[in-house]
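Something for you to look into today, if you have time. Could you write out one complete protein record for me, on any chain you like? The space below this message is yours for that.
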Amino acid sequence: MVVAPERVSRFLSFLLRHNPKQYSLQFDRQGFVPLSQLLALVQERFEGVTAAEVQNVITESDKKRFELIDGKVRATYGHSVPVELGLEPVVPPAELYYGTARDLAHNILRAGLGPRDRQHVYLSESWAEALAVGRRKDPLPAVLVVSSLLAHGDGIRFYRSGKLYLTDQIPARFLSLREEAKT
């Protein structure tokens, strides 16, 4: 049986970001688990998946969801369980973007943007990437524009993880709504 890499990636994300205890994974403080332990769980779940295929999903993801260091693997972002990613603050670009369901956009514009059920707020570098993220929640999503450089100047810290920027929160004064026609 051939298993799509996307299914393996989703399972890895679930294990490494959200529910390691359900599968008795032993994280270290930085969120790393031994590749051998992770591989055994994936192969138990998906019969016929090879170690090379799993390692390819980990190392070749265009979204850089995972990292492999010294025989250990972790998710690079998206955690709902506490991990210390060890990220260094960076200066963000002038604008970043956040895709969301339309029915949530006005509340976010009023109250600001927080991490909800995750450790951080995840922001995209491009409007198109944020639109794709928003479409997972709504076929016609809203894309919020974050005046990230202004927020940074006001003391908001930003971190880089893979293709995303992470932050703890964005006050409403740094948010605006971009309509799809303005791409």
Q: What stands out?
A: Residues 5-75 form a domain with the Arc Repressor Mutant, subunit A fold (CATH 1.10.10.970). The chain has two domains: 5-75, 89-182. Residues 5-18 form the longest helix (14 residues).
